[in-house]
Design brief:
Number of strands: 16
Helix content: 25-40%
InterPro entries: Kinase-like_dom_sf, Prot_kinase_dom
Largest sheet: 7 strands, mixed
Mean pLDDT: 72
Structural class: alpha+beta
CATH class of the largest domain: Mainly Alpha
Strand content: 5-15%
Low-confidence stretches: 153-169, 197-205, 211-215, 376-426
Shape: globular
Organism: Botrytis byssoidea
CATH architecture of the largest domain: Orthogonal Bundle
Number of helices: 12
GO molecular function: ATP binding; protein serine/threonine kinase activity
Protein name: Protein kinase domain-containing protein
CATH topology of the largest domain: Transferase(Phosphotransferase), domain 1
Number of domains: 2
Length: about 425
């Protein structure tokens, strides 16, 4: 019944060849509801598809914006060879007035992956895997951003998502950006993890982004969204900066470090007195994106990462890329996807040639790390209400006011979970 890139019109009483799904993670088995769709896993009987011969699960996704997303996915997927970090559209069908897309089923997403491997080893295998994913995703984003559609993309639609403010006001797309692909909701939950290629051609674990996501996530959205400014492909660059910073935090401090980092960011964004874990703050009196600032908790956290005993020259370079090129308040100052990819390629190639660049401990002194961060434009001042991190450490709770403590940020969890030696077992 289902063939590669097939488009089927099914009768209402047609019995679909979907079998019960067997999975260990019950939360992953549940139907996920999004802005335009719902996603749930199924098994397709092997005699009713020609995608591959080996057993592998699939996921189906009913959509309202079916035709646009289908066309985008088909064109992106028609590139040869297909991009290993973009999700492949297998087939489509329509039944009972609903449109469906069929994708390979991913075992997990990056958020779950981090949580399941709470204390990764900072070794060659681990760091190279993480760097390979970041490099690959930057290339996938480049392909998406260079993709030109034959129909204008509004904020809600194919190859992007609807961007809403907290009061449900919608954001417009910047003039000239309507015909370029963009993702619009890059976050760990939308970076899917595959322990191996669905056709068993790629034995290594890898990750991939969906060419379009669901309702955008406030944590990873840039300042222009809260200010209701027109969005562009620079939206994705900011989101990558946020995710990359969490990825590095996981490498250096484990999954508990990601939660701690969220607490450090916890504060009001400035316009509505609602506490959040954004990466920026907009002063009450500000009505322009230039008035926004990188949150002090982010600055201090990056300072601590620069000083961490595990911090290598690679980690320093990635942190500098994030803070100087990705997490910039002015969308026009953020690097384009092409430059982002080139910088990731440089880090990747240097790491493959020089293991010491990737792994050898090279932490900065408190003085040097502060000097590096003070060069970052438009960040919150570290005034009297927030002490320098080499003397006191900021402790911000999402549900309380700012307080101080002298906790040791390098303190490790008592857990002894280590990175698996066989990544194909994910």
């Amino acid at each position: 019944m289902f063939k590669d890139k097939a488009e089927l019109e099914l009768a209402a009483r047609e019995v679909l060849p979907f079998l019960p799904f067997d999975g260990d993670d019950q939360d992953e088995m549940k139907t996920k509801q999004g802005a335009y769709s719902e996603v749930f896993p199924v098994n397709i009987h092997s005699s009713h598809h020609e995608f591959w011969t080996s057993h592998h699960e699939k996921a189906k996704k009913p959509l309202i914006e079916f035709k646009k997303e289908r066309d985008v996915l088909k064109i992106l997927g028609s590139k040869s060879p297909p991009h290993p970090h973009l999700i492949r559209l297998l087939a489509t069908y329509r039944q009972k007035g609903k449109y469906h897309l069929i994708f390979p089923y991913a075992e997990s997403n990056l958020r779950s992956y981090w949580e399941q491997r709470s204390l990764p080893e900072f070794d060659h295998e681990t760091v190279m895997w993480a760097l390979t994913q970041m490099y690959g995703i930057s290339n996938a984003l480049l392909r998406l951003h260079e993709f030109k559609v034959t129909f204008p993309l509004k904020v809600g639609g194919a190859a992007n998502v609807r961007v809403k403010t907290e009061d449900d006001g919608e954001i417009s797309v910047r003039a000239g950006e309507e015909k370029f692909g963009r993702h619009g909701d890059i976050k760990p939950e939308n970076i899917l993890y595959f322990s191996k290629g669905p056709e068993a051609k790629d034995p290594d674990s890898k990750s991939g982004i969906r060419p379009s996501g669901i309702l955008s996530s406030p944590t990873y959205e840039p300042p222009e969204c809260k200010l209701r400014r027109p969005v562009s492909r620079a939206y994705d660059i900011w989101s990558c900066g946020c995710v990359w910073l969490e990825f590095i935090t996981w490498l250096v401090k484990g999954s508990a470090g990601i939660e701690e980092f969220a607490d450090w960011r916890g504060n009001s964004a400035g316009l509505n007195d609602i506490d959040d874990d954004n990466f920026f703050t907009i002063p009450r009196e500000s009505n322009s994106s230039s008035g926004a600032t990188i949150r002090a908790g982010v600055i201090l956290w990056v300072e601590q990462l620069h000083q961490h005993e595990k911090c290598s020259k690679l980690i320093h370079d990635l942190l500098k890329l994030i803070m100087k090129d990705l997490l910039l308040i002015d969308a026009d100052e953020r690097v384009k996807a092409s430059e982002f990819h080139q910088q990731m390629k440089h880090c990747y190639q240097k790491a493959t040639r020089d293991p010491d660049y990737m792994l050898k401990s090279a932490p900065l002194s408190p003085k040097d790390s502060k000097a590096t961060l003070l060069k970052i434009p438009r960040h919150e001042g570290l005034g009297s209400h927030m002490a320098s991190s080499d003397q006191r450490n900021i402790n911000i709770s999402r549900n309380s006011s700012v307080s101080r403590s002298s906790r040791d940020l390098n303190q490790k969890s008592k857990k002894t979970v280590t990175w698996p030696t066989d990544l194909t077992k994910g």
